[in-house]
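Table S2 (text version). Query chain:
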Amino acid sequence: MWWPFKKRDRLTELRKAYARLTEEARDLQRAGKIPEFAKRTGEAEAIGKQIDELERVRK
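Corresponding structure-token output:
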């Protein structure tokens, strides 16, 4: 059954944010905006580390 107030999973939220940031970084790189690309890539890497940490803790 669908529940509108479903408890959000932190790992799922981080994965969505990681995917969004990597897509933005890709688009910025293709547009030639390298400084912005580097910033987005750094943010995505930080979230990637958080994802790895959560996955390691859950195992």
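Notes on Table S2: The mean pLDDT is 92. The first helix runs from residue 10 to 30.
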